Amino acid sequence: MPKVTSPRKNRQTEFFKNWLNKGGERAPKTPQRDTWGWESRVPENITTNQLFIKEQYDLTVWQLDGVKSVETLYDGRKGRAYYEKDVEWRAWEVHGGPVGLWHIVKKKLKEHIAMNRDPAHFHAPYDYQPGGLYNVFLDEPPRLPDRYCHGSSILQHCKSKIPGWAWDKCNKALNDALSQTKFSIVLPGAREMAMLRAVTFICAYPEYATRPPGEPLVIPPHLYTLAAMLECAAQPPPDPQDWDVVALPDSCTLDVRANRFDWNANYLEALFAAILDAVNERVDDPEPVWKTARWMVYDKYVTIFSRGLQYDRDSKTWSDGAREWLEGRMSEDALRGSLRGACESGRRYNELLPGPRAGPPSSSAPPAMIPEPESSSSSTAVAGPSTAPY
Fold first, then answer.
1. How much is the pTM?
2. CA 311 – CA 216 distance, rounded (Å)
3. Which of 26, 88, 346, 349 is most buried by a 10 A CB count?
4. Are 322 and 308 in contact, with CB atoms under 8 Å apart?
């Protein structure tokens, strides 16, 4: 005889399904993380229970869904034991890698010492115990190996000179450039020389050092209209010579300018107007709006047209085809050939920015010419061109 489920149990099951989907996700919805350097020494066969998992790894039962486990019987009651190596990895996914979990365990250790006046009897996770990979009893958090440095002191120096996001973008661009060679030959020291030139290029523009934190960017409510407009931007066709696509309804934001696809005047008019409206809404404190808006457009422009940070292996120079979105006020001559000069709101946008700075040194300058990074203490232009908006 088939088992009949009561209506009450059905309602309970449906409630928990909805609860899981809304707030208590079975598996943590975490952003994609770079797991390079996430090394674990937890033995494969060690298991732990939910009580210790909550205490040591700060994970709830709902965050353990999918973690390798085995059914156990303790004191006549059934339960589950979870393999600690898999628990550790899930904790890294949820808390931001080994270093993120280190900070959480460190906080628990400080609370334990404040209560007991002694670190004794504090149960740290396996890899966070004294002598472990991520020893939580040390004063400083662990430093993970970098996927690009490979023990090179020159590359370590370069990494220390530029923002983290720029380090990642430059190395990815460099990977593309170094792989585009007929014979697939990369000379020893090619990455070091290219990244030394990247430091010269990045440090020449202080706006690169002031990207708002967060990846992806945290969008404030005042910029929701701008964010929605950026979502409407059409992708150019795979064939760069397919100029007829701009006549299609789905490509209403595209145009052909200087023998390549770009945003058309109507779309640029609305885009710049959305930025100006957002700044006017926050006239009392427009600086965060300026900073985030310009980087939002920069990121979208790079994604759509693939014109971000790039390295030319032949000329040994760096360039950034999207940097116009980060620059200050343009002269009238430069404005005529720019995206800002293509519409009226773009010209008004340009008027609010500070005047141009002195030109940067060449990105192909010899390593000895590399400058120190400039200060990023400049403030943002609000109603007039008195200060820098980056």
1. 0.65
2. 24
3. 88
4. yes
